[in-house]
Model the fold of this input.
Amino acid sequence: MPGVTDRVIVVTGAGGGLGREYALLLAREGALVVVNDLGGARDGSGAGHSMADTVVEEIRAAGGTAVANYDSIATDEGAAALIKTAVDAFGTVHGVVNNAGILRDGSFAKMTTENWESVQRVHLWGAYFVTRAAWPYFREQNHGRVVMATSTSGLFGNFGQANYGAAKLGLVGLINTLAIEGARNNILANAVAPLAATRMTEDIAPKEMLDKLPPAYVAGVVGYLMSDECSDTATVVVAGGGRVQRVAQFQNKGAVFTTPPSIDDVAAQWGEITDMSGAELGINPLG
Done:
C-alpha cells in the first residue's frame, strides 16, 4: 500500500495553520484523517467546534475522508477519546501527528508556574497522552507512525520561551526512546521543527521573514514521515520556506582521565573536551 493511502491518521491542532495543512495534504494523498482541534485561542483559553469542522468540510469538498474531534489532548481522558474517535470511525489508527500547541511566553525571571505547566501539558504531556493511547493499535498491527512537532526554540533556544523550548526538546527525547521500543513492531517516531507563518509565530518573527514561510511547505515532510515508504526513525528535521534540514546531536572524542580529575585537571583539558573537530553522530553508550 503506497504512501498514506487508506491509513488512519490523527492530526492534533488541525483546525488551522500547520495542522490544517497536514490534514489537507494527508487527505489529498488518500489518508483517512481525524481532524482534532479544541478550538481555543493561542494561549489555550476557550473552545469551539468551528475550526475542526471547517477543515473537515474542506477535505470532504475536495473528495477526501475526514472526521472532526474536539477533545483536549492535555488530559489522558481527552486523548483516549480522540483515539476512540479514530477507531469508531475507521476501525483503527495508523499514525499520529502531535501538532497541537499553545504559547504563554515570558522571560524566565517572570515565568509563572501556571504558564510553565500549561505549556508542558499541551505540548509534552499531550503528545505523550495521544501516542500512548494509539500505541496498543500500532503494536497489534505491527505498523505505526509518530510525528512530533518540535521547534527550533527547543533545539537552539529562544528568549521568552523557556516553557515552550523545554517541552519541545522533551519531545525529541521522547522520540528517541519510542524509536527504540517501537522498532520490532515497525513503529517509527520522528520530529519536525517547522518554520512557518501561523498564529503561533505572527508576532515572534518579522513579517518579511514570515512572508517567505507558508505552512504548506512543511506538510509534505510530515506526509512522508507518515508514509509506508519512510524507514527513518528518531530523526529530527527543520522544515520551512522550501528548505528541509536534518538536525542531530554529535559527540567528540573528548578527553580521558585515568584518575578522578580535579577542577584544575578538567580546566587544563577543557579545550580537548569541547573541541568538536572530528565529532561523530552521538549514540547512547548505555544503550
